[in-house]
Amino acid sequence: MAIDLLQFLLYAAALVALAWPLGGYMARVFQGERTLLTPVLAPLERGIYALAGRCATQDQHWTRYALSALAFNLAGWLFLYAILRLQHLLPWNPQGLAPMSPDLAFNTAVSFVTNTNWQAYGGETALSYFSQMVGLTTQNFVSAATGMAVAVAVIRGFAARSAKTIGNFWVDMTRSVLYVLLPLSIICALVLIWQGVPQTLGAYVPATTLEGAQQLIARGPAASQIAIKQLGTNGGGFFNVNSSHPLENPTVLSNLLQVVYILLIPVAFCFLFGRMMKDRRQGVAIFAAMGLLFAVGLAVVYGSEIHGNALYDTLPVDQAAGNLEGKETRFGTGLSALWAEATTAASNGSVNSMHDSYTPLAGLALLLNMQVGEVVFGGVGAGFYGMLLFVVLTVFLAGLMVGRTPEYLGKKIEAREVKLAVLAFLSMPVGILVFGALAAVVPSALAAVQDPGPHGLSEILYAYSSATGNNGSAFAGYGAGLPFHTTLQGIAMLLGRYAFIVPMLAIAGALAAKTPAPASAGTFPTHGPLFVVLLIIVVLILGGLTFFPALALGPIAEQVAMLAGQTF
């Protein structure tokens, strides 16, 4: 246990040490200031704008910004869908893999365009190298860049003074890829290759096992896709078992580094916010709220897993290794719990252990990370503008409590902004509870559920929480490849992505047009401990009140049954 705690502290220190300067660098990039990479990348950036035309650099009203993002994502979906349906006719398919079925191709294309990366297929048995590299890896970059661009536009709306525009989507997306995602991915991919992750276009390798059996070892251009899948909080694995595969995650060091990759840019956004608002305390306050929620979630997951299930573990807690079912022994309980908490908090979706095997209480914590809207750091950009939604609701409620007009950073939060924030939040219960209810009553959909009782309900809740929250992880026993689920979950992914993006851009446009009022003695400070506590309470209460009845019938009921000696 002491080693695990030391690893947690090392992880936190490394993450903050890297994210702090990265946040400053990103702020300079998105404000058009000169950086270390400007002499190399600026000519390429100007060339892209020249090819795109004049409209690519003009500042946009929030409506044009939103339409640009939606149009680009639609084009990306069509491109990826075509690749998946035609991969048998395209190059770099040494195994001769067949095309995806229409429903699975729809689900997969939606999944990667929305930065969900839910996988209802086996990567090494369903996708060619072309589909992996040109299709999925491209979307790993541009779907992450879309989230980053929207977050930066929303931040500009909060920071602007009587402005009609919030930036240009094409510029923000281009800079996200060129100056942030691409350089980081190159460095991180080289580190993964050093650790033993394959990067090749060669065919799969036949091997003879110790028992004399024949086995085909899958390989391919894995390192490059894994680097961006983690940095972009995508999560889609090159191999079927994702980051528990020894070629995708070979060592303890590669494991720890990849968990750093997952949260690096989401944490950096907190510090970027402080710099762009010209008040670093604001970014630190949001980081503190996210960090405390993350720490509490990790404590619940790790504490539950290290104690395990008393029905099967007769050793004392100080001697037991905890619940190791579904975990790699090379990572143990500690690094598995850290990864599970990070991946569900960051809408990443990659896994180095099977969440279906976690204890009910740990599964509850993972579910809540997704159900509150993936705002505990969340996806790159998406988690931050999701948390700003809760900031709007927090200052509104705080204003009601003290009898003053709600304000945030001098901007009045009025009925329009609150209605838009509530509208965005409602996408989560619709996608999780309404769609999950359909999955629980339609006979053809119930075939996907592996286990009876409350654990079966938890599988359904997890699947639709993951899809709507654009997370992509899953309870491993859930059969998500049925046409009912590939279609309905694809719709849930679209709802969870764009029903957040459009209202948040509308809020940014409304706030950008307002002139900030100077602070007074009655201004509610939004950089102190009281605001941090209120923000955490609002996040937990909204999530708790909305999803508690369903959770009570799922993981909570299963935990009570486990303590009474019954398992499912």
In short:
With 568 residues, this protein is mainly α.
Describe this structure as you would to a colleague:
The chain is mainly α and 568 residues long. It has two domains: 19-265, no CATH class; 281-563, no CATH class. It has 19 helices and four strands. Strands 1-2 form a two-stranded antiparallel ribbon. It has a two-stranded antiparallel sheet with strand order 3-4. Helix 4 packs parallel to helix 18. The relative contact order is 0.12. The mean pLDDT is 91.
Which helices and strands occur, and which strands form pairs?
Layout (H helix, E strand, L loop, with lengths): L1 H29 L7 H15 L9 H24 L16 H12 L9 H4 L2 H31 L9 H27 L9 E4 L5 E4 L4 H10 L20 H25 L3 H28 L24 H14 L14 H12 L10 H21 L4 E2 L2 E2 L2 H11 L1 H15 L1 H4 L6 H16 L14 H30 L16 H35 L5
Antiparallel strand pairs: 1-2, 3-4
Brief descriptors of the model:
568 residues; mainly alpha; two-stranded antiparallel sheet; 19 helices; 2% strand; globular
Q: How do the helices and strands follow one another from N- to C-terminus?
A: HHHHHHHEEHHHHHHEEHHHHHH
Largest sheet: 2 strands, antiparallel
Mean pLDDT: 91
**How many helices?**
19
Question: How far apart lie the N and C ends?
Answer: 28 Å
Instruction: Determine the structural class based on helices, strands and strand pairing.
Output: mainly alpha
Number of strand elements: 4
Shape: globular
Fraction in beta strands: under 5%
Helix content: 55-70%
